[in-house]
Amino acid sequence: MPQDKQTNRRILLASRPHGAPTENNFRLEAQHVPAPKTGQVLLRTVWLSLDPYMRGRMSDAPSYAPPVGLGEVMCGGTVSVVEQSEHADYAVGDWVVSNSGWQDFSLSDGRDLFKLSGPVLKHPSHALGILGMPGFTAYMGLLDIGNPQPGETVVVAAATGAVGSLVGQIAKLKGCHVVGIAGGAEKCRYAEQVLGFDRCLDHRDDNLAQQLSRHCAEGIDVYFESVGGKVFNAVLPLMNTKGRIPVCGLIADYNSTNLPAGPDRLPLLQSAILRKRLRVQGFIINQDYGHRFDEFFRQMSQWVAEDRLVFREDVVDGLDNAPETLIGLLEGKNFGKVVVRVAGDTPA
Amino acid sequence: MPQDKQTNRRILLASRPHGAPTENNFRLEAQHVPAPKTGQVLLRTVWLSLDPYMRGRMSDAPSYAPPVGLGEVMCGGTVSVVEQSEHADYAVGDWVVSNSGWQDFSLSDGRDLFKLSGPVLKHPSHALGILGMPGFTAYMGLLDIGNPQPGETVVVAAATGAVGSLVGQIAKLKGCHVVGIAGGAEKCRYAEQVLGFDRCLDHRDDNLAQQLSRHCAEGIDVYFESVGGKVFNAVLPLMNTKGRIPVCGLIADYNSTNLPAGPDRLPLLQSAILRKRLRVQGFIINQDYGHRFDEFFRQMSQWVAEDRLVFREDVVDGLDNAPETLIGLLEGKNFGKVVVRVAGDTPA
């Protein structure tokens, strides 16, 4: 079902998932397209970003952001185009990054918009990826918390994902030995041959810990954490003294409903932090680093212009496919940054 | 058995403890006093510091420092006096901080010595406490990693111990709301009435978590960790977003031989670090901050001179009592900084 100019298709949160989300947790409904009041713009969604954090917003467990309410539109970053404007700063045809969520049309008073201009307009969906939230997460988490030094070993989980692929490449630009961890031989080959990682290991291999130990012969100085679970278990014993662990996600745990069986390894982690003098630090990119967005955008745009970074998108066509695609993303079925093409990429 | 000038009593590590150490893990032996060669000094121990980290050195589990070997003298910081000198920089009668360990006499080439002068000589054992390693640990861990801001809530475990008592008092100097946790009503009263903490809670109370929640009404911004175990469990749910947890010790776990029964709460800690964007950082004072000792010593000496800090010592007489005292220290039986008076306090 393609986008049309009379109907606003919206995908709502119908119920909260217990464990992995299913399509039944979502509901599609259609409304009339709303009209902007004075000071507002009407936005039409062209690209919708799907990201692991969305699983957290579907739950009402306490977290850093309020949950999506039942019956509300699923949240999400979009690249949108201004269709009508009653706002002095925006003209029809302007391209913006917005938080419009999973719908065709939305209203905004402009306060949460970021106007796109210059080279990014050649590839607007990049504003949701390499030049957007995932790129910003990779850049700040690695450089500010991870603080990698030339010759150090950096390990990155979800190595071909939106964030991980950039973490590894930036670490290579900084002169590090980079070992990725990904799911499956194809992704691992891609990380080594296309992204230029020194090595990429398959987390489905039974001997991940052994492999990791072999390819991190001098230990691990920075582990960029986005998955948790068994990858973390393999990494922890190899962390070097004074190692840094920026934590931007724990996708392996998002769908779990209970803590794993014992023994209780919490004291083990505490003890590793003490004995190895580790710095383990969680961060949420916009809250913690919003004030440094310009610095990121300038540097990353330059690297993109110089062709020093590869960024792979996993493009899915059609808003209707968003639920299934998010479910797959949480299982690692995507290959690269997931973006949903809600409408044609050409300006209206 | 008092110190005499002919005999070097040495307390050796006789065997490695399994769980809590016992007196059988130690052995007292007597030797002749050694003679210094060219470039050496002969030191006579006056004060010996006993500290929780010593439990770690009794084990051969991998740690940040090599273990004490079986049959070797137990390690420990001392305040010592130069008895004979074949070293140009030291004269007989000089007072130094040394790592002489649990013995009456030792030789040094001077490289690990810190000469005492000025006001600290009025109270030489302070060089093992408020102006030594524990003070340095409190100062740097709190100020550099904890970074407490006026009006924030700081919680400190082992609140009347060498480190904790200073952490809380420095946090008060910085304008924080300070809640201590200690073992027993007497220590709690002392923390409130003498140290000036806003509140001190008894970790033996069944309702510690409730009490802590009540007295940290605005959550916890900095938790200075030195104990782990159930205190940490009570603290974690109360940590505020962007909270900081400097970790200098985990005394509650030092004697444990197995991980606790499940469930495995390691993912719970990871998830708290992510959701609350916590910074959890281990540190070992000399390795991490050795280059900033002068800054600490200057500021702390000034606070001492201005009478702005209280520092309580738990003085034990006689080297022979060191084993029993360390065993008690690991059980929280001490009240204040434990120092062993190996010999009279007056310069020889």
From TrEMBL, chains A, B:
Species in which this protein is naturally found: Pantoea coffeiphila
Lineage: superkingdom: Bacteria
Record protein name field: NADP-dependent oxidoreductase
Pfam families the record matches: ADH_N_2, ADH_zinc_N
Record domain Enoyl reductase (ER): where: 22-340
SUPFAM superfamilies linked to this entry: GroES-like (SSF50129), NAD(P)-binding Rossmann-fold domains (SSF51735)
GO MF terms, alphabetically ordered: oxidoreductase activity, acting on the CH-CH group of donors, NAD or NADP as acceptor
Keyword field contains Metal-binding: no
Keywords attached to this entry: Oxidoreductase
Keyword Ribosomal protein: no
